[in-house]
Amino acid sequence: MLGTVATLTSSTTYTGLGDLPHFNPDDDRDPLHPAVAELRAAIKAADAVLICTPEYAGGLPGSFKNLLDWTVGGGEIYGKPVAWINASSVAAPTGGRDAHDSLRKVLTYAGAKIVDEACARIPVSRADVADGQVADPDLRGRIAVAAQRLREGV
């Protein structure tokens, strides 16, 4: 999961990352590429955004940074409560810290409302994941606490 757009009663996992074109500020105008329009509409409809992204090469994966670049010009994320949780393995040297620092920088620039109480580092090993879901009840509980804190920050 790279990102979740959430309303107070439900959540939707965004799965269109691979459909986004490379960001080009010259293309950040109407008519938008359909995948960009879909992303922006999902963010606009959400009460909050919960991000879960791995760290790659000391920062955000390029494809996810591309997604964030598309959120700046539309303004849909401005003032939107946002938090992130860790998706790094227990063996990751920084525990996702560099990716989270990058997220803070970009999201602050975009005007998002970062809910610090909901941002959490919860290291997850491959053994803790089954069928794409965190299986360990303790880890799921810690993730649920972060999500609840985000809801409270709305």
Automatic annotation (TrEMBL):
The keyword Oxidoreductase applies. It holds the Pfam family FMN_red. One of its GO terms (molecular function) is FMN binding. Keywords: Oxidoreductase. Gene3D superfamilies: 3.40.50.360. It comes from the Bacteria. It is an enzyme of class 1 (oxidoreductase). GO terms for cellular component: cytosol. Residues 12-117 form the NADPH-dependent FMN reductase-like domain. Its EC number is 1.-.-.-. The keyword Oxidoreductase applies. InterPro entries: Flavoprotein-like_sf, FMN_Rdtase-like_dom, NAD(P)H-dep_reductase. Transmembrane segments: none annotated. This is NADPH-dependent FMN reductase. It comes from Amycolatopsis mongoliensis.
